[in-house]
UniProtKB/TrEMBL annotation:
Keyword ATP-binding in record: yes
Molecular-function annotations in GO: ATP binding; ATP hydrolysis activity; DNA binding; helicase activity
Protein name: Putative ATP-dependent helicase Lhr
InterPro entries: ATP-dep_Helicase, DEAD/DEAH_box_helicase_dom, Helicase_ATP-bd, P-loop_NTPase
Helicase ATP-binding domain residues: 31-116
Domain of life per record: Bacteria
Organism from which the protein derives: Clavibacter michiganensis subsp. michiganensis
Gene3D superfamilies according to UniProt: P-loop containing nucleotide triphosphate hydrolases
One Pfam family from the record: DEAD
PROSITE patterns with a match to the protein in the record: HELICASE_ATP_BIND_1
Coiled-coil ranges per UniProt: none
Keywords recorded for this protein, A-Z: ATP-binding, Helicase, Hydrolase, Nucleotide-binding
Length: 116
């Protein structure tokens, strides 16, 4: 297993390994930075996994950890798109991972994530 994938929850890790042969260089670099709390600028060609590089860590954390009790702290990810078309494209590209991770979590057992 790729070491960067070991840091994801079991459901996300298993879904990713079933969906892809492995992380791309762009994904590995971005996830290593984000997992450390650093910023990342991902520059890579079309089809290289930039959307998952940008969002999978956040999706994993949203799905595998309960929402904070304090309503003022419930917004944990904010995505601002410079173009409406890009926002629509990103939303479309994240549907499959969201569904796949939730289905994998249901199959794995009781600590399944909730789709939000």
């Amino acid at each position: 297993m790729d070491p960067v994938l070991a840091r994801f929850s079991p459901a996300t890790r298993e879904w990713f390994q079933g969906a892809f042969p492995g992380p791309t260089a762009a994904q590995t670099g971005a996830w290593e930075a984000v997992q450390k709390g650093s910023h990342a600028l991902v520059v890579a060609p079309t089809g290289s996994g930039k959307t998952l590089a940008a969002f999978l860590w956040s999706i994993d954390r949203l799905a595998s950890r309960p929402a904070p009790e304090d309503p003022m702290r419930r917004t944990r990810v904010l995505y601002i798109s410079p173009l409406k078309a890009l926002a629509v494209d990103v939303e479309r590209n994240l549907r499959s991972p969201l569904v796949g991770i939730v289905q994998t979590a249901k199959r794995l057992g009781p600590s399944r994530p909730r789709s939000r």
